[in-house]
Amino acid sequence: MSITKKDVLHVADLARLALTEKEIDLYTAQLQRILSYVEKLSELNTEGVPPTTTTVPPETVYREDRVTVSLAQEEALRNAPSSERGCFKVPKIIE
Amino acid sequence: MKYEAVIGLEVHAQLLTGSKLFCGCSTRFGSEPNTQVCHICLGMPGVLPVLNKKAVKFAVKMSLAVHCRINPRSIFARKNYFYPDLPKGYQVSQYTEPLSEHGHLEIDIDGGRKRIGITRIHMEEDAGKLLHGEGIEDSNFSFVDLNRTGVPLIEIVSEPDMRTSDEAVAYLKALRDILVYLEICDGNMEEGSFRCDANVSIRPMGADKLGTKAELKNMNSFKYIKEAIDYEIQRQIDLVESGGNVVQETRLFDSSKGVTAPMRSKEEAHDYRYFPEPDLLPLNVGAELVEEARSTLPELPEAKRQRFIIDYSIPAYDAGVLTATKELADYYEEVVKATGEPKVSSNWVMGELLRLLKEDGKNVGDCAVKPASIAELIGMIKKGAISGKMAKEVFGEMYRTGNPPAGIVKARGMTQISDESELAGIIDKVIESNPESVDRYRAGNVQLFGFFVGETMKATKGQANPQAVNKILKEKLGG
Fold first, then answer.
1. For position A95, what pLDDT does the model report?
2. Which ipTM did the prediction report?
3. Domains identified in chain A, total number
4. Could A93 and B130 be called an inter-chain contact, meaning their C-beta atoms sit closer than 8 Å?
5. Per the CB < 8 Å rule, is B141 touching A61?
6. I need a surface site. Which of B186, B285, B411, B442 has the fewest CB within 10 A?
7. Contact between chains at A76 and B51 (C-beta distance less than 8 A)
8. Number of cross-chain residue pairs from A and B with Cβ atoms under 8 Å apart
9. Which ranges of chain B have pLDDT less than 50?
């Protein structure tokens, strides 16, 4: 599998990242190196082996349905670049 | 050419837990914005979600109720997309290994039954709410309230088994009834605790291959769902007939125009890059939890309806109306238990009580009349203490005041005269004072019978038991 410039632009777009030409070249090469490294795994025959999603003992951890105290509104909004009327304020979403 | 529509539905139901799916924030609806949020549901770095056990139990209950097979192991996955209603940049959902699969539900349609397959039920967290600025100053901004972020949902995905909008609505109503009966979802469509997306395609009648589907969104009532599906089916037929092709897309229903229109969004938005959520362990629903859910399953609407038809010998229509909610069904059963008269009880509960409640826009839970009072009223009619007509009047007052019927009847002096010897005396006097009419009646003018009934009623101020009056008059005049 090889990574092209197009793949990098696609991923950058999904993550809403603006990249310079230089960065695109850099990331294309870096991602390609990472994938080639990981590709070694495909040399193994994994036919019939279930995918591993965790290495922790498979015991489900639950919490009881109990309401706890939430953050105060101003606290919740503290890191927001912009807020108004108790809400996070963002550029208009059109849909 | 003749076409048939193929419809599959995706329903999101909000679970009635007190706290969110992965944190302890309240799920209450309608609070001040961003007052039910914490580090976890805001997606702060380094926090760990912990699964709400009650939400899992509720999801298992629904799975059992629609005959889904519970997967002993299911996996939470991250569904990645970039949108301000989602602070983490991904929604925790289930993808390749959902909670349960392969269920079904039966619906009543055109006097017959139809089985609709349920592909899967999975658990996920809800996203926040966006408010769009409307004033001139605000028009360039959207406002985000994250109170709903992380509220537990189940998504119920059907097979593409429906062919008409009526079937789709029947399926949704049946599904909602079950959720409400299970007391795991309030079923409120306006507040969004029961939401539906519809996948609609068409194909030539009799074809096996599925056509290209459009996904319909933004329908918050059964009426709109029906309208949107009907519109979309016709749109696709017109398009194909005129040589066009249906494209796969998401379309929003515009209820003010009654049309569906494509949603403006980038195609790439649908590249969700699902992968297993590393912060959550696989969900191993143990046999113990499944058994606990199974043992607390109530009788479901369909089973209750069938039981009412068989045990109470009431018409299917009555059974359908009376089992519409658990509250109403319980109310009716209490009346029947006290009266032993299923059909008469149905007439009063379904006829009089529901009519008045509907006029006031109320539910049976808000109603002042106790089941025991209706039973008492039915008993009074049966004994002949009051007539059916009087009973309706009494019932009106019971409904307004919540008082039991005996007191109302007494206060109004409404007691009915059913005592035959008392009535016979009154009727004798009526006959004595109208000798001419008696002669004409006996000579064959049988229409005069009504005149004698009227005179008797007048003499008793309308309190005579009509059946008894008819019987005695026939005997006395007959000779």
1. 52
2. 0.84
3. 1
4. yes
5. no
6. B411
7. no
8. 138
9. 266-268
Model confidence band, residue A67 (pLDDT cutoffs 50, 70, 90): very high
- Its domain, for residue A10, covers 5-41
Token digits for B21?
Answer: 């799916």
d(CA B19, CA B365): 26
Give the pLDDT of residue B271.
Answer: 81
- B26 CB-near residues (< 8 Å, 6+ apart): A67, A70, B18, B19, B20, B36
**Any idea which fold B420-478 has?**
Arc Repressor Mutant, subunit A (1.10.10)
A80 within a domain of the structure (yes/no): no
Among residues B245, B246, B280, B247, which one has the least CA distance to residue B76?
A: B280
CATH number, position A19: 1.10.20
In a domain, A55, yes or no: no
Cα–Cα dist B144/A87, whole Å: 5
Residues in A whose CB is inside 8 Å of some CB of B read 10, 13-16, 51, 53-54, 56, 58-73, 76-77, 84-95
For residue B115, the model assigns a pLDDT of 95
Place of tokens 């509907």: B358
**Is A70 in Cβ contact with B53 (below 8 Å)?**
no
pLDDT of residue B136: 57
Q: Which residue is closest to A16 within chain B, CA to CA? A: B82
A64 to B54: CB separation less than 8 angstroms, yes or no: yes
